[in-house]
Design brief:
- Helix 10 crosses helix 11, helix 15 packs across helix 20 and helix 23 crosses helix 26.
- It is globular, with a radius of gyration of 27 Å.
- The termini are far apart.
- It has 26 helices and 25 strands.
- By secondary structure, the chain is an alpha/beta fold.
- The protein has four domains: about 210 residues, P-loop containing nucleotide triphosphate hydrolases (Rossmann fold); about 170 residues, Rossmann fold; about 80 residues, Winged helix-like DNA-binding domain superfamily/Winged helix DNA-binding domain (Arc Repressor Mutant, subunit A, Orthogonal Bundle), CATH 1.10.10; about 190 residues, no CATH class.
């Protein structure tokens, strides 16, 4: 170890000996900076560094040193989003902590009750736990929570980015706050992450109301070069299948599978299609290729719907050093589960976000001297007389290219911290009542919604509206002393094991026409009657939406063109859409595009220029008017809401908003946008009146309509960005109201 490393010599001697025995040549830069910050346990710290750069050690080496310096046993609580990650970290910590005589306790649903009982009798060491298990502990251990955590020295949150902006993240924020309330003191918090787009927002999440006091350790060092290939594939208008000769037919998924088979065999890799359905499809195709060429199978599936045994089998295959294995997976393998180093990452279709792409790519290039490798596969329909605007502008390819270019510049989406997360507030209110056996309204408000509390954005008046509504719903009741208790329904829900999770598993809506089920699709944007959706290659009108049954009733849309955009795997940020527009207006050709992808780019730029889209934002497409904003989904959805309120049928659609003209003229739509830019913003009750499927989160059903709209708007609408666009763009339309017509 270098003598210039002052941080190393601040560590406990036993830890120093362990580091020497492990053969470390030096500490990583993040470790050098983090150790003195964490050592005294007197501040909150975020350690942000690339995958496999020693973030976990940066937190635990000084935290353990501090605990060893105490005159009595201490407790570190490590909170992870995944049970599998807890199991990995247990193996990782156990070797070191055995030498330090510090116990390590895994705690989740698969851990035996006897081991949990042993921890409760000791209450020291390192506790590895998920938010859901922590929730269960607070609910079920009641007033003994303070005693369980009386020795608590640090709260460590791994994969911090996976929590921020989500219901689960708000739950975790609330749980940490409640633990500190139970022990009646601040406990230093340490956040670990490889992907944080805005450190100040991340700090504010880690310590609500005091983000400025959080120390930030940010390492931008990278140990490897990056190699990227984007391959374009064109889906023919008509696929003509020849006689079967035992070979795969030349459909696009088959062609991609063949390329994956040839490129990935013999090494460990991760392949990310954009849905569980596509994971199954490509796993099947690749398994068939292994059988066809009579070689051992190297391709394994991994997604949340699979059993624990199947997922574990895939993880074990990846960890074997003597046999190659490739996982076809969803974001279940995006986080830090130890699967060893992989040679490359493949992305099929546009990734959900730049941050997600960065996280996935961090799995590759971890061996010294090896580059990180990204293969991206983009599918575009062939151009034809009825091609949609999305096809003409090659939006799949453009979006992917934009994300990769932003990744190369080091940009990725900042954490989303504007959500009020009232769904989780309902759960936490019920949980606090369970923990203390009852609570007054003022106690609940102060704990959960007071100054620097996790739900501090809610006013006392709004809180009272919520309490009364929960009473009407029989989730809560008030006894003669004024204490809130569980109501008839609340007691049943809290006593069920599903209560502890604040999030709901992604649900899909059934698509039904004339009593015939066409299939299911995930819904990530608001729905309205009269809206057009694309499904099974056909365009449909939404006739009715049954939220309770998760069913959309549709009829065929006769004639016309398909919707501008059939949907995305994630919520796209405005910065990505702005980069897409810049790519269409540029002459530069990224070196990572293959020949077909370069042709797609040239065709997209030609279509963009032919339609003068650099200065035109209205596109007349027969029965449909497209408003190209090049904004993110949250702003486009807000513009659609503002138009819906004025009587138009409008839908957020990719880089813009789609408006069904019906009896409206183009000029009337433009006039409406002018009015929107001038008029006072309507209340959310008016703006979201008539909008369906606002109930997205687990406890949204328990919210009164007024608070449901507030919660939805905070999570899914960007009204400020929408209004800014109308104020900046509409004057151009007044001066030069050119509306391009697409033949």
């Amino acid at each position: 170890m270098s003598e210039s490393s002052t941080s190393f010599f601040q560590l406990d001697e036993r830890i120093q000996r362990f580091i020497w025995a492990e053969g470390w040549e030096s500490l990583r830069d993040a470790q050098e900076v983090a150790i003195p910050l964490i050592l005294n346990a007197d501040r909150d710290v975020i350690v942000a560094a690339a995958t496999a750069t020693g973030k976990t050690e940066a937190a635990f080496l000084p935290a353990l040193t501090h605990m060893l310096q105490l005159n009595e046993p201490g407790l570190i609580v490590y909170i992870s989003p995944l049970k599998a990650l807890i199991n990995d970290q247990f193996d990782r910590f156990d070797r070191l902590c055995e030498q330090l005589d510090i116990p390590v306790w895994p705690w989740h649903g698969d851990v035996s009750s006897s081991l949990k009982a042993r921890f409760l009798s000791k209450r020291n060491g390192i506790l590895l736990i998920t938010p859901e298990s922590l929730e269960a502990m607070l609910c079920n251990r009641g007033t003994s929570v303070g005693a369980i955590f009386e020795r608590l020295t640090f709260l460590v949150v791994d994969e911090l980015h996976a929590f921020i902006g989500s219901e689960r993240g708000k739950q975790l924020q609330s749980l940490m706050h409640r633990i500190e309330h139970a022990v009646d003191r601040k406990v230093p918090r340490i956040g670990l992450s490889a992907t944080l787009g805005d450190m100040n927002l991340a700090a504010e999440y880690l310590r609500s109301g005091e983000g400025a006091s959080v120390s930030i350790v940010e390492s931008r060092s990278s140990n490897s070069e990056l190699k990227i290939l984007v391959k374009g594939y064109e889906e023919p208008l008509v696929i003509r299948l020849g006689e079967s000769n035992g070979e795969l037919e030349p459909t696009t998924p088959n062609l991609i599978a063949v390329h994956l088979f040839k490129s990935l065999r013999g090494s460990n890799n991760l392949v990310f299609p954009n849905s569980r359905r596509e994971v199954e499809r490509f796993t099947h195709l690749l398994n068939n290729l292994c059988s066809q060429y009579q070689v051992p199978n190297e391709f394994w599936p991994h997604h949340g719907s699979l059993s624990k045994e199947i997922r574990t089998e895939t993880e074990a295959a990846l960890k074997q050093k003597n046999l190659p294995a490739t996982a076809i997976c969803t974001n279940t393998l995006e986080l830090g589960i130890d699967i060893g180093a992989v040679k490359s990452v493949a992305q099929i279709g546009s990734p959900p976000s730049v941050a997600s792409l960065r996280q996935r790519l961090g799995r590759s290039g971890r061996r010294k001297g090896e580059p990180a490798i990204l293969r991206s596969y983009c599918i575009e329909d062939a151009l034809g007389a009825q091609a949609s605007l999305a096809t003409e502008l090659r939006l799949e390819l453009i979006e992917t290219t934009a994300m990769i270019s932003l990744l190369l510049e080091g940009w990725f989406e900042p954490p989303s911290t504007n959500g009020v997360h009232l769904s989780t507030l309902v759960q936490q209110m019920l949980s606090v009542v369970a923990q203390y056996g009852g609570a007054t309204i003022s106690q609940l408000f102060k704990l959960l919604c007071g100054e620097k509390a996790p739900f501090s954005g809610l006013s006392k008046e709004e809180f009272m509206i919520l309490v009364r509504h929960l009473g009407h719903s029989e989730l809560l009741m008030q006894d003669s002393s004024g204490a809130l208790l569980h109501g008839r329904i609340g007691e049943k829900l809290v006593n069920h094991y599903t209560f502890y999770a604040a999030f709901v598993i992604d649900e899909e809506f059934r698509i039904v026409t004339s009593s015939k089920t066409l299939g299911t699709i995930p819904i990530s944007q608001m729905l309205t009657v009269g809206q057009r959706i694309l499904f099974a290659g056909k365009t449909w009108f939404v006739e009715q939406i049954d939220e309770a049954q998760k069913t959309i009733y549709v009829i065929r849309a006769s004639g016309g063109v398909p919707p501008l955009f059939s949907g995305s795997t994630g919520r796209i940020h405005t910065q990505v859409r702005q980069r897409m527009r810049s790519l269409l207006e540029s002459n530069d050709v990224p070196l990572f595009l293959d020949e077909v992808a370069r042709r797609f780019l040239a065709e997209a730029r030609q279509g963009y220029a032919d339609r003068n889209l650099g200065s035109t934002f209205f596109i007349d497409h027969g029965k449909v008017l497209y408003i190209l904003t090049w904004l993110g989904d949250a702003a486009n959805e807000a513009i659609a809401c503002l138009l819906l309120r004025r009587g138009f049928t409008a839908t957020a659609a990719g880089p813009g908003v789609e408006v069904l003209k019906s009896s409206h003229t183009n000029e009337e739509v433009l006039d409406a946008l002018i009015d929107i830019s001038i008029d006072e913003l309507p209340s959310l009750d008016i703006l979201l009146a008539g909008i369906k499927n606002l109930q997205r989160e687990k406890w949204d059903w328990a919210l009164p309509d007024s608070l449901l709209r507030i919660s939805y708007a905070s999570l899914y609408l960007n009204l400020d960005e929408a209004l800014k666009w109308t104020k900046n763009i509409v004057p151009i339309g007044i001066v030069n109201p050119e509306i391009r017509t697409i033949d």
